[in-house]
Design brief:
- This protein has 206 residues and is mostly beta strands.
- The protein has one domain (6-205): Beta-galactosidase, Chain A, domain 5 (Distorted Sandwich).
- 5% of the residues lie in helices and 53% in strands.
- It is built from 2 helices and 17 strands.
- The protein is globular.
């Protein structure tokens, strides 16, 4: 997830089964509040299925103040074939975020008509605003198709596929880059309320 290195934080496992795990993180210690001064609880649930994985994240705001919501995940994918040239990439109709010279969104957007073609020598390092909250990104190799399905709570996405690397990242985001500073596209969880975001990674044979 964006920001603080979450795997290094003190998570508490609340449930575990063969195909399911849930954990939570209390953001209330002085060290955490020094980084992000908003008391809240993060609940993360992972559900494993034969063809994929679903991740549900819930932010529970304390009774003290609203909590800004700005996080995302970084699913990276690659295939066994030696070249990315023939990977088939499908991206939906969206709005592309205009960046400044530092790679930070300016607040402007431009039309993006989608993409459905071989990745070839195309290079991506782009942020997008979704038009439909429930939407799908996918990449297909020689033997399987991998899809990232945004189901709830994610209004933005990042696509990262440098043309000199054999991987692609299809990244769900709740807010655009730099939202905590600019305020653009930033949502808040009101005191005592909850925010839920869900995405699923699906793998299908071809």
């Amino acid at each position: 997830m964006h920001g603080v290195p979450w795997p290094l934080l003190c998570w508490t496992v609340t449930d575990t089964r063969q195909d399911f795990m849930a954990a939570q993180l209390e953001w209330s210690g002085s060290d955490l509040l020094a980084v992000f001064p908003f008391r809240h609880r993060v609940e993360l649930a992972a559900t494993l299925r034969p063809n994929g994985l679903a991740l549900e994240t819930t932010i529970v705001a304390s009774s003290e103040s609203p909590v800004p919501v700005s996080f995302g995940f970084h699913p990276y994918f690659g295939f066994s074939e030696s070249s990315r040239a023939n990977w088939q990439l499908q991206l939906p109709l969206m709005r592309k975020l205009v960046l400044d010279a530092r790679g930070i969104p300016t607040g402007d957007e431009e039309p993006f008509a989608g993409f459905n073609a071989e990745l070839g020598e195309n290079s991506f390092d782009d942020g997008f605003a979704l038009i439909e909250e429930q939407t799908t990104f996918s990449v297909t190799g020689a033997t399987c198709k991998v899809s990232v399905e945004l189901l709830d709570g994610y209004g933005y996405a990042q696509v990262f596929a440098p043309n000199d690397k054999e991987y692609i990242a299809l990244e769900p985001m709740t807010a655009p880059g730099n939202a905590l500073t600019s305020g653009r596209g930033l949502r808040f969880v009101l005191p005592g309320e909850r925010f839920r975001a869900v995405f699923r990674i699906r793998v299908d044979g071809v």
